[in-house]
Amino acid sequence: MSGTAAPGPGIELVGGPTPGALPEPPRGTSERPLPIVMDCDPGHDDAVAILLALSRPDLRVLGISTVGGNAVLERTTETALRVLALAGRPDVEVAAGAAHPLEGPLHTAPHVHGESGIEGPALPEPVSAAIGEFAPAAMARWIAAADAPVVLVPTGPLTNVALLLEEHPSVRDRIAHICLMGGSITEGNITPAAEFNIWVDPEAAEIVFDAGIPVTMIGLDVTHRSIVWEPEREALSRAGDRVGPVVGGLLAFFQEFHERTYGWAGTPIHDAVTVAHLVEPGLVRTAALDVRIETQGRYTRGRTVVDLRRVTGRPPNAHVGLDIDRERFVTLLTEAIRSYR
Question: Of 103, 188, 235, 257, which has the fewest Cβ atoms less than 10 A away?
């Protein structure tokens, strides 16, 4: 497929949605911003997610934790610091976390993001350093000190979040919601069955989905519909004096993988959809469904098994993304990049 056609319809439910089954993510305002912690493995789309979050007056980024995923931990941490330099926000703390999954070695994605994890135009040199605190401990500190319950926004493997929940149980009640990018109802992108973030550490994902904390899963069914087409990317490059050209160049590199793999003359911005969902009610259509993580399957390890037809009788444990208003999403991104001067 090429051009500007969306890659297939959104997911439709049989029997309609399950209303009121789980609490929706809380919302912030400019007077009372929603406190969030971003847990990421930058990554082109993670970088855009960070820039979007930092641009919003209705969000307050308490800190950024990094994990091995798209690239090794040292590189994802450096990239987070470089993105903060680009945004002019070196005041935001960055804490390095898990270098590998709970079980087994780390698998990275150089075929998607390049060896550095974020190939393309050079990002500015860091003007701050990562703090000397293991990310799960830093996350617990940020959450405990916040003046309101916190939303976690993981956009990489869920290792840090699982360690936070297991090693710092005292802050569980201070976590209002976990809005993550990962999983899928219908497809994989690293195996035929599994999406990359969940596949890298399915044991951690199982801990997170079974924790009893409200979860929103923004998976490939939604993010593969969040495409910024090439003319829109070129317009994004012209938005803002400093940040626009860099973001446009990053997305041009990211587009190369999606052209090779899917034939799209554009690129999805997977991770930024998590942030967009928190600030634009109705942008992403979700349904409350039961989600289980496959940790053992020979061909399906890392699969998010979503009970779309409600055949198990199990109660929902997650809001699952079904569709997105793509044009509204692109407008939101463009406005965010334009806000940087």
Answer: 103
Q: By CB neighbour count within 10 A (0-12 exposed, 13-18 middle, 19+ buried), where does 4 fall?
A: middle
DSSP conformation letters of 118-133: S-SSPPPPPSS--BSS
Q: 65, 71, 10: which is closest to 223 by C-alpha?
A: 10
- 325 in helix, strand or coil? coil
Strands 215-218 and 227-229: unpaired
**Structural domain total, the chain:** 1
Do 79 and 112 touch, CB atoms closer than 8 A?
no
Q: DSSP strand E in the chain: where?
A: 34-40, 59-66, 94-96, 150-154, 175-181, 215-218, 227-229, 266-268, 284-289, 291-293, 304-306, 318-324
Give the pLDDT of residue 17. Answer: 55
In this structure, is residue 205 part of a structural domain?
A: yes
pTM of the model: 0.95
CATH of the domain at 149: 3.90.245.10
Q: Quick one: pLDDT at residue 1? A: 36
Instruction: Please report the pLDDT score of residue 20 as a whole number.
Output: 53
User: pLDDT (tens digit, 9 = 90+) per residue, 67-108?
Assistant: 999 999 999 999 999 999 999 999 999 999 999 999 999 999
Average pLDDT over residues 249-269: 93
51 occurs within a structural domain = yes
Residue 162 lies in a domain: yes
Contacts of 260 (CB under 8 A, 6+ apart): none
Structure tokens at 103: 């079980």
Distances in whole angstroms, Cα of residue 166 to Cα of each of 84, 142, 159, 208, 270: 29, 16, 11, 10, 27
Catalytic residues: 270
Instruction: Write out the DSSP string of 137-170.
Output: HHHHHHHHH-SS-EEEEE-S-SHHHHHHHHH-GG
pLDDT band of residue 130 (cuts 50, 70, 90) is: very high
